[in-house]
Amino acid sequence: MDVISSPNACSVTTGGNLWRNKHSTKNIYHASFGVLKASQHKRTSQMRYNLLRLQQSSSNDHYKYIEDKSTYKKCNKKYVVKAVSKPSFDLEPPASNPANILVSVKNFLIAAFWFCYPYSLIAQGLSVISSSFLAVENLSNVSPLFFTGMLQAIIPQLLMSVYMNGVNQLYDLEIDKMNKPYLPLASGKLSYTAGVFIVASCLTLSLWIGWKTGSWPLIWNLVLNTFVWSAYSIDVPLLRWKKYPLLAAMCIVITMAYIFPITLFLHIQTFVFKRPVIFSRSLIVTVIFMSLYSIGISLFKDIPDIEGDKAFGVDSLATRLGQKRVFWICISILESAFGIAFLAGITSSYLWIKIVTGLGHAILASILWHQTKFVDLRSKSSIISFYMLIWKLMYGAYFLLPLIR
Fold it and tell me: Rounded to two decimals, what is the model's pTM?
């Protein structure tokens, strides 16, 4: 290929042709013959030179191929060794980091805390304390025996409170995504499986602890609460009573006004003090007060949830009559409850009871009425804030009611 395409050979031939056109035939013949002979000699030399270069190139290429092949094998071998021997720390799961585990546990505990409705837990604990003091007749009754009996009631009651609120959240998940998206289940901060585990565990422990105490008033308290709040929340035929305004209100009233104070009073009166069943004046006043107050709470709690209740067919009084009308109905009922407690206090035979309970309930009623001026029924946060105030005022009443004699 180098010989045929050589530029030197082509130029000589072309030059010979030009010379032949300008001179005679003979001279051209001798000149051409000489040029051709010289060209032939030059071609032979060029062929030998190219052959030597070709052999040298082949030898070099062969050596280079062998060397490259060896280098490739070395490089390949080096790469494989690196891939196998070097550990990859980037593939470690994040959960293996102790800091991440602590953060996860912390977030779970916070979500579980709000899942339990802290304000309801406080109310439940104060209800146990208040109802227990209803059975106290004099200061000598406030003894280690009394506090032991009260502790026997508080622990299963708090666990039952978690069940009561938790089972409602489990069956209201879709409604809460619209009405209360900040709740742990609705926001996804707590998984549905974790919610089921918490609810089932608290119910089991509550019933087991109550049974181990051997107090029948306490056992009946836990059994009745389990039935009422299961019927209130669980969505199966003949249950899900929260869809019906009258039945929903009855569940709250029966629990707060009758099951809690009466059974817990009997737990201290009959099981702890071993006394006969005698209903004290303070117990009667408490039942009347809580009957009215729990009606107000049961009606008011549906006011901020009107949008979701309409969407899911929950027929509450607020969806029927409107938020504003139900709001003032609730205020009237709650003020009536404080009015009855005020009258019971000032008619006591003890002066200090008249002053403390009469003045105390009057202050609570005044706070409630004053705060109604700042409620914006168009703002869900304003309504919820006032709803929390209603619970806080009830906390105050729990301290005053046992004093009425």
Answer: 0.71
